[in-house]
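Hypothesis: this fold can be encoded by more than one sequence.
Test: take the structure tokens below, design a sequence, compare later.
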């Protein structure tokens, strides 16, 4: 893995490849890594975070934490069913993206770019492996 391969590099490249601003790419990547950290299988998530310097910090940043869930998301999460909690968090992120002017197609392009970059640098689709451990998220983010 190249020494310069960091989360900031990934964000810059994803913005260019996805035809969006670096801020928009950062929002999508931050939210995506937060979702991975919260709902992904720990060893799959750790594999990503260990190979991508800065990813764990982004996932745990205050920018990643979803604020004030909507009533529906709160009701869904109250059931404690993992798939429903994931759907609630994912839907809330998509609503947050929309409010920030980030279309779902842009979020999908950013996600695909991140997966590709990590795979090229590591030789494995580590992000895809982690995403597949979370029911429903792959379809939501276009993986």
């Amino acid at each position: 893995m190249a020494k310069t391969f960091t989360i900031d590099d990934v964000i810059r490249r994803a913005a260019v490849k996805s035809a969006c601003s670096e801020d928009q790419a950062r929002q999508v990547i931050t939210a995506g890594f937060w979702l991975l950290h919260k709902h992904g299988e720990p060893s799959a998530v750790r594999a990503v975070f260990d190979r991508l310097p800065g990813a764990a910090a982004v996932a745990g940043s205050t920018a990643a934490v979803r604020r004030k869930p909507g009533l529906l998301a709160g009701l869904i999460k109250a059931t404690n069913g993992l798939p429903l909690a994931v759907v609630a968090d994912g839907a809330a992120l998509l609503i947050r993206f929309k409010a920030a002017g980030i279309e779902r197609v842009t979020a999908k392009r950013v996600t695909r770019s991140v997966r590709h970059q990590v795979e090229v640098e590591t030789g494995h689709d580590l992000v895809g492996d982690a995403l597949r451990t979370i029911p429903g998220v792959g379809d939501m983010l276009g993986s």
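The mean pLDDT is 83. The chain has one domain: 7-141.
Hypothesis status: open.
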